[in-house]
């Protein structure tokens, strides 16, 4: 028999479903609400006063105590499989040293030296952090192995905890290829598009490339992305992080699901994003941790581009797994409203992953709910740094938080 769970006594329910009569524009807010989950899927949403007639005898009733509930966060950009850390680099950066992509190579060395067991244990700890902070769907990139064997290991380990795995062999050119007598960047691209892609594609859903100075040129990135697409992978792009570049236009041209960072955008970049289905995924933790200028989310939103927010959790430029923190920074420093930031961290992230089953709470969607110890979603930005996530449910089942 189907299992039914009624979540009731919800003070403010953010559905991300603009059904008639709901508040908050795209947030689709229902007040004094209830939600029915059947076998882990949303089956009904409405006023709690109507729940008794709509849901006569649920198997379980979960009382939310008048608190706010939002969809589970969808973190569409993270790098969670790695060894070591870069705390010293962070301290030096806070003392005035600029961020450069080359720091990735120190993590590559530490990751290559770590055992599977060490990487798996650390990954499990990060996943626990995500869950406790309300993230129910997340993507993980490789990119800290940069050899055939090491990259295959990273995507394989990532696939143990999420279906959203991205092959990022084109993160930077490894040191052994950049030495004066090394084969060079183009030779490394040949490896990425050949033997490395063949080894990693069975464990991955996406291919990505860091189209940036100090990493890969637009032409090198194109070769990687087209090879991945030909191998059955969806396309994602790191672009326009450290300065103006061709990453955004390349992403739009190739029909990428998202282009991530988007810190330095021309008017042409913004117009291209607004006219496309490619999501501009902004990563507030990066600018917080590197002291670079923040992306201008207001400019993108006013132009009609679709915006997502993600953590970019990684040891070098954004060592945070907290989507609530990213929301607070986006509101404070990127000119987003609280409603826009919450939507971007839920429905926006789902669009960046081209998922139609998460990011909203409407019939047919996964019953991924986050209970906030607050009366409104606004408190995620209003009370920065306060642990407001009380309970987390994924597919209707308790995942993390208070018993």
Automatic annotation (TrEMBL):
Pfam families for the chain: Amidohydro_1 (PF01979)
List of residues binding N-formimidoyl-L-glutamate: 144, 314, 316
Cofactor note: Binds 1 zinc or iron ion per subunit.
Protein's cellular compartments: Cytoplasm
InterPro entries: Amidohydro-rel (IPR006680), HutI (IPR005920), Metal-dep_hydrolase_composite (IPR011059), Metal_Hydrolase (IPR032466)
Sequence positions that bind Fe(3+): 77, 79, 238, 312
Record-linked NCBIfam families: hutI
PANTHER family from the UniProt entry: IMIDAZOLONEPROPIONASE, IMIDAZOLONEPROPIONASE-RELATED
Name used for this protein in its record: Imidazolonepropionase
Source organism: Agromyces soli
Organismal lineage: Bacteria, Bacillati, Actinomycetota, Actinomycetes, Micrococcales
Gene transcribed to yield this protein: hutI
């Amino acid at each position: 028999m189907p299992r039914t769970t009624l979540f009731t006594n919800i003070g403010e329910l953010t559905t991300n479903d603009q059904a008639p009569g709901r508040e908050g524009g795209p947030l689709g807010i229902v007040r004094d609400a209830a939600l029915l989950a059947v076998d882990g899927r949303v089956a009904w949403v409405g006023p709690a006063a109507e729940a008794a007639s709509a849901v006569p005898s649920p198997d379980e009733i979960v009382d939310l105590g008048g608190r706010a509930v939002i969809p589970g966060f969808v973190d569409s950009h993270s790098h969670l499989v790695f060894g070591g850390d870069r705390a010293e680099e962070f301290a030096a950066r806070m003392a005035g040293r600029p961020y450069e992509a080359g720091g990735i190579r120190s993590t590559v060395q530490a990751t290559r030296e770590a055992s599977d067991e060490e990487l798996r244990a650390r990954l499990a700890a990060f996943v626990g952090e995500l869950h406790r902070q309300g993230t129910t769907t997340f993507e993980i990139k490789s990119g800290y192995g940069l050899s055939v064997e090491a990259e295959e290991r990273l995507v394989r380990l990532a696939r143990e905890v999420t279906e959203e795995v991205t092959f990022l062999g084109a993160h930077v050119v490894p040191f052994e290829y950049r030495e004066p007598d090394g084969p060079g960047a183009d030779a490394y691209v040949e490896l990425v598009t050949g033997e490395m892609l063949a080894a990693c594609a069975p464990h991955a859903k996406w291919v990505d490339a860091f189209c940036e100075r100090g990493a890969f040129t637009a032409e090198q990135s194109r070769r990687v992305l087209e090879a991945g697409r030909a191998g059955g992978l969806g396309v994602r792009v790191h672009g326009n992080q450290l300065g103006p570049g061709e990453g955004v236009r390349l992403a739009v041209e190739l029909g990428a699901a998202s282009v991530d960072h988007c810190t330095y955008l021309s008017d042409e970049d913004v117009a291209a994003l607004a006219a496309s289905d490619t999501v501009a995924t902004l990563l507030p933790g990066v600018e917080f941790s590197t002291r670079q200028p923040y992306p201008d989310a207001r400019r993108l939103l006013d132009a009609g581009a679709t915006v997502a927010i993600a953590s970019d959790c990684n040891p070098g430029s954004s060592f945070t797994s907290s989507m609530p923190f990213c929301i607070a920074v986006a509101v404070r420093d990127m000119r987003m409203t609280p409603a826009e930031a919450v939507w971007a961290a839920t429905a926006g992230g789902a669009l960046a992953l081209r998922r139609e089953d998460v990011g909203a709470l409407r019939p047919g969607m996964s019953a991924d709910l986050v209970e906030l110890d607050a009366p409104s979603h606004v408190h995620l930005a209003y009370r920065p740094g306060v642990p407001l996530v009380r309970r987390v449910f994924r597919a209707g089942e308790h995942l993390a938080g208070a018993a």
